[in-house]
Amino acid sequence: MKKLLNFNKMKKLLFIFYLISVCGFSQTTYTTTSNLNLREKSNVNSRILETINANDKVSVDSLGSEWSKITSQTGNIGYVKTEFLKEQKQSKKEKEKILHHGYMKIFLVILLAYIIMLVYGRITKKNSYNRKKKEIEANAKITVYDDREEDISDLEIKKQNFSKLQEKLYNNIEELYGWETLENFKKGKKIWKGMPDVLVSVFFGEPHDVIERKTPDIVYKTFVYDPISGARSNARIEDKYRTVIYSQNGIINHWNMLT
Hints:
The chain is of the alpha+beta class. The protein has three domains: 1-133, SH3 Domains (SH3 type barrels); 140-184; 190-257, Beta-lactamase Inhibitory Protein, Chain:B, domain 1. 40% of the residues lie in helices and 24% in strands. The strands form three sheets. A five-stranded antiparallel sheet has the order 6-5-4-1-7, with no helix packed on it. It has a four-stranded antiparallel sheet with strand order 8-9-10-11, with no helix packed on it.
C-alpha cells in the first residue's frame, strides 16, 4: 500500500483550506444604485447573464476603474459598470457577525487539519508495521550458505549479504515484537507462547494448510502439519494432524504436537 499523503502535499492542502476559510468574509459588500445588466465579460457587447435590481446587495470580487467583477445574489459571476456600485457601510453588529463566521471557518479548518494529520499518522504507522512484517516473512527464510566449491570472492560477498539480511531481520523482530522474542528467535527456540505466527514457517516449514477464521476484532489462524493417514474426515483437527499450532491476532497462544 502506497502512502496516501506526503507532508509537502498536506501543507499545500492546508494552505488552500485557509484561503477558502478567509475568502468567505474578505469580500466587500456593495449595493447597486440603479438597475444593472450583469454581463459575461467587461464590455457592453458581452452576453447579459441577468438584470440586477437597484439597491440589491452584491459581492465585489475585483473592483476596477470602469468594470468590476461581482457575484450577484443568485450566484451568477460577471461584470458591471463600477460607477453604479456603492459601498455598503456595515453596522457594528454585521461586522461582528462576519468576523464570527470567519473565526468559525478557521476553527473548522484547524479541526480538519488535525483530523488529516491524525489519519496520516495512523496510515504511515500501519504501512511501516506491514512493511517490516513482510520483510520478516521474506528474510526469516534465509538458508545457511554452502561454502563447498565456492570461489573465495563469491563466498565473501554471500557472507556479507547474509550478515546484512540477518541484522535487518533481528532489528525488525526486536522493533515489532520486543527483545524477548528476538532472544528466543536467536536461540532457535522451536515455539513459545507469544511467538509471532510469521515465524512459524521458519521453524516448521510451510504448513500443510492454514485455517483462518475472523471476527470483527480477532483473527484466528490454525497451522496444521503432518496429516495422519487413515484419520476420519469428521475427526477433531488434533486427531487429523500431528502438529497443530493456534494463533490469535498474529500471536501463538497454544499448540498440540503428537510424538
